[in-house]
């Protein structure tokens, strides 16, 4: 006959092992997120800090690719002309556009550019993080999921409560999300906080991730509130039943 105490001990060990696995994966995802984020922040911050802002004009559009129609395949790059200290220069934007119509919107218009004062022939448009910040946002969302599952399993056999979950799970994830947004802001030192949403596309993903965490917090709170009266009544019934048995 199985000993209930031994079974409970084995279940606790299994839960602990499962929680460690989920939390280890979560830690790996978070480290990867921070690593990619720091790399792109350093790259963008270096240009924003050392280059001088000025204005250039889009004078042409160049196509790079194999499509003959020019509307699909390859990319469209802006040719930007500018003057610096009395000299005329031009350069081709490195990011480009997938569709011609998107690039054509900038033709013959002034755009903000950054010029290297040590080498005025080197210039570029304010950089965006491209896919890297989006990838970081995906890592953050997966981190939140794995961390939440791991912590819920870990707290299951502890003296679990909504307050504990609020601080150790939901609150911690939101604080980390806000910290990531502030780190993104470090990458654009000469711009306002709102610009991270245009230059760091992953910022929107981080906000969405924090929103999902807040939604989970709300659902957790509602479920706890609904179950609390039942648990209280059950606890009172259990105590009264125990007292009658003792008598």
Task: Characterise this structure.
By secondary structure, this protein is an alpha+beta fold. The chain is built from six helices and five strands, in the order αβββαββαααα. The chain has helices spanning 4-50, 100-104, 131-156, 162-186, 196-199, 202-246, and strands spanning 52-64, 75-84, 87-92, 110-115, 123-124. The chain has a five-stranded antiparallel β-sheet with strand order 3-2-1-4-5. The longest helix is centred in the N-terminal third of the chain and has 47 residues, at 4-50. The chain is elongated and about 85 Å long. The two termini are 31 Å apart.
Summarize this entry quickly:
It contains six helices and five strands. With 247 residues, the chain is of the alpha+beta class. Helix 3 (131-156) packs antiparallel against helix 4 (162-186).
Query: What would you report as the Rg, rounded to the nearest angstrom?
Result: 28 Å
- Shape estimate: elongated
Question: In percent terms, what proportion of residues is strand?
Answer: 5-15%
Q: Largest sheet at a glance?
A: 5 strands, antiparallel
In terms of structural class, how would the helical and strand content be classed?
alpha+beta
Along the chain, the helix and strand elements come as HEEEHEEHHHH
Low-pLDDT runs: 67-71, 230-244
Trace the largest sheet across and list its strands. Answer: 3-2-1-4-5
DSSP strand tally: 5
Mean pLDDT: 82
